[in-house]
Structures
1.
Amino acid sequence: MTSSSSSTEQLKINVDFGGGLEILFDNKRSHVVSLPLRVAPSSSDTNPTDPISSSTTESATADETRPTDVSALIDHLKDNVLSDRKRAGLFAENGTVRPGVLVLINDSDWELEGEGSYVLKDGDNVSFISTLHGG
Amino acid sequence: MSSCGNPATDPDALMERRAKFDKTTDCIKCKVERGSIVVRHAVYCKNCFFAVVTHKFRRSLEHPSDRMASDARQAASSSRTKSSLVGFSGGLGSTVLLDAVDRFYFPHEDLKKGGKAHPRNKKTSVKVHMCYVEMCNAFTGITDRTSDITDACKDYENLELHICRLEDAFDPNWWSKFHPLGTNIIPSSSIRLDDEALPFTQSIESSSDPVSNLRKYLTSLPTPTAVQSAIKTMVRVILLYTARFLRCSQVILGTSLTSLSINLISSIAQGGGFNVPEESYEEWTASSVDFSAQPTTIRVIRPLRDIGMKECSAWAWWRNLLIIGKEKLPINERQSIGGLTEEFIIGLEKDYPSTVSAIARTCAKVNPKDEATSRCAVCQRPHPSGALDWKARISIRSLSGDESSSVTDSNTHGDRASGLAPDLCYACYSHFVSRSSKSIAIQGDSAIPLPTWVSNSSSRKVSLERLKESIGEYLLEE
């Protein structure tokens, strides 16, 4: 695989929302999302407030990318798919899902798969289910 | 995340994020299948998850005396012969509860185990009701969701839906069905918040519109915490009276382990420490109403109290249940004890789920030191005497020289006699007399209507004879 082909290749990820979370995403429960195979490092990988990490990584960040993982999917959903932007905090905060949102990767708890660091594969199903809808 | 320790000498100093499960990703129960969910560090496959949750549900549904039954058949049979009212809000917990209750009382073919004769596999002849309390009229701009709720409940053909409204708490017509002498003599009661004795008046005149009374009551409460608590109390008491009317012996609520922990911490923070046991299990008896033909005591049980929100969520997702969701009320939750506690507990559960479970388990061992002497006129829960004396000892309610209105002064027994304060538990009393900018604004305001059951519960209630006297000329001789 050449670098030019990998940059254009896309992952198709099936995303579902449940437990009332779909309200934030145009009231649609199922979405298909296209993501690149690799994405730029997240802000948490190079902490700008940490002088040591920012100075050592400054020269390398331009070409460094990471495989697309669930954290990248969450960022993408928050930035590009979320329709109710005023209530974005109900879905994600601090680079991950808000406490109280259950994530299933291929119908399995994301805690078994490494949470946000799970590297996505083409055709993966990721479900976000809110648990915050009361008793 | 890192600590101040030296990682070269102390490997734990880096405090790297640990896996949230104990050993392997295989199910700890069947040890064959790959796990599908992590529940407080334990991994379960989907089949074992449903078995474990169902077992916890059944165990919590049983009365403590049922558990003394010599065999499981007796216990299962005993639990399923009680007529029940299921509280349904459209939220996650109650949606899972409805599904689990339906499967428990009316077992589907795929769930039948233990032979034809096992009590678990017999359809119960007992009526199971579900009740939804609509609160759209509490504030302006809230959508009425009764049609959504009705649609969602259509799948449960064995359960009968009853819809109540929050304003029923103030509606004499609604309450007349619980009263032996009819609508006309149900007294309405009100208090004034500008005096800490909470001067209490009753009248038997027909009261005004229930919706306007409800709104006046809620807008007069001084803090968001008090408003949130008042709504919760009204819903609970309406469910209890509805259960009474329907001759149910138990009310089943969808309080999950997470919600229970939130309720416990929030209640204790609001001064409800005496009622810690009631948050998970309570028995309630209606007062001063003729229910001689009906069961005397209703028990309130929460069969999801050992099942966390995460498990409820996974159950609902895998069972393909539709969650309607609870309507967001215009209460600033970031300024209420309940809202702040919820945010804290849910954040805690993400990384430390066992700690949330420990809250509920620790509180289950706590019992109040004093005996209850009566029931609170507002929340209908038991309370000990001396709540006002306690408040007098632990708080300064007025500046020196300005003690005329202070109910907490031990010399003001005269004021107490005419006020509602002695009939309230510490938490309800604190809700009414909390100080805030809003409470200053309502000083001198007119009387605030109270829910109808307060008249029956207050020790200063109008006697039946006095009520009969006042309408005597309209009564026909026998």
Note: Strands of chain A lie at 10-18, 30-36, 38-39, 66-67, 92-93, 96-97, 101-105, 108-109, 125-130.
2.
Amino acid sequence: MASYSTNEFKSGLKIMLDGDPYTIVENEFVKPGKGQAFNRVRVRNLKTGKVIDRTFKSGDSVEAADVLDTELQYLYNDGEFWHFMDPQTFEQVAAGKAAIGDAAKWLKEQDVCTVTLWNGEPLSVEPPNFVELKVVETDPGLRGDTSSGGNKPATLETGAVVRVPLFIEIGEVLKIDTRSGDYVSRVKD
Amino acid sequence: MGAADNREPAWKPAIPITRLRERAELLEQVRAFFRQRGLLEVETPVLSAAAVTDPNLESLVTEYRGPGAPPRERLYLQTSPEFPMKRLLAAGSGPIWQICRVFRGGERGARHNPEFTMLEWYRPGWDHHRLMDEVAELVWAICGESTVRRRTYAELFRPLGLDAHGDPQPVCEEAARSLGLEPPPGLDRDGLLDLILSHAVVPGLGSDGIDFVHEFPESQAALARVRPGHPAVAERFECFLQGMEIANGFHELGDAEEQARRFRRDLDVRRSRGRPEPPMDHRLLQALHHGLPDCAGVAMGLDRLFMVALGATHIDQVLAFPLERA
């Protein structure tokens, strides 16, 4: 089984603790001049997101977490699982509700997402930074008003609700920043 | 890693030349401090066929082939100039000091670089308390810190409900847990005390002045005399500034037999941990047999002292070329 020495610790390294995969957020070398050396690390649980501190004896080893970021194409949702495919190998994986999280509301078929796999199973899904989605529901637009700062809610084809300018109408395709959930622009046909 | 500007190309220093000028000025102030006090500046070898045995210090090793080569052509880089300086004291040097490079394997972090600059000095006829006064005077001269607090090792642990000299290992382990520190497996009693001290106590030391800690447990005497009593304590001190250990000093052990016993015990611990067992320094033992004057000595990490003087938070902010640029 692969393992890392504390000498290899750095932020972003994926390790196993108490049976769960963690990523190292911070690593601090602590050593009294005449005493035991330690590595004090802050780690984030990749399943729960919880951040904890842990101390290792310098030189000790810890099991590596088999965690891998992959670019996968979103296929469909069967009501319980979201299915993804590797466009090169055509291999498919299914992500449950916990792994998909907030990404669910942005996903449109064929979008390419970053899927983090742990032992081959999806741990988390990151949607593309920008998605283009059609408006399926919004209050009637105010003709001519393209400048005022006002906005209104609009429901997109994936079910996500975003704030959009007053002039947006049903049927238009919008560019959305998934990191903030903000409207960016209209997409011209 | 870093601290300083990592966008600079790797051939360049990661700190500005102005910082090097500040460092040079501080070095000059340290030299002036010892010149004024009349100590003899000495230079001793960086390389030796013998090495420190302390289980928590790793000596770097190099090879020398040629006339006078040591056994196995192996020379150790000093982790401190302590042994040859004590040989000078035994030979009648009187008070001595030096600034030199020392080397320690496995030590790299925000406060560690595997090679660093050590200031070390010895005062015949002094004990560690008098030497603490002089350390405080130097810190005042370089950093402007003048408030001094002196506490024993036991006093640091008392607020945590722990008797640092008496409580057995399981109690220390429980104390670590109650502080939210899950002890990594395989720590002995001193390792647990190190864990608690370095994680829960040291970060708060030296935040508003100079903190001295003295009277260490006998098991952590290193090269200090042990004062018999209940409990017996090591006449050892450490100096802290801004949560950092700056210096470590001893009322020096002069008993050759006791020193030899400690060397052998260190080597036993090393063997049990599967660590290298370097040759012990028989010339130091011979010097102690001849007679070391009653003295106190201290080693100070100058890079850290300069960090405090210059308001740096990472050792790379006071080094032209830290490890990754060396």
Note: The mean pLDDT of chain A is 92.
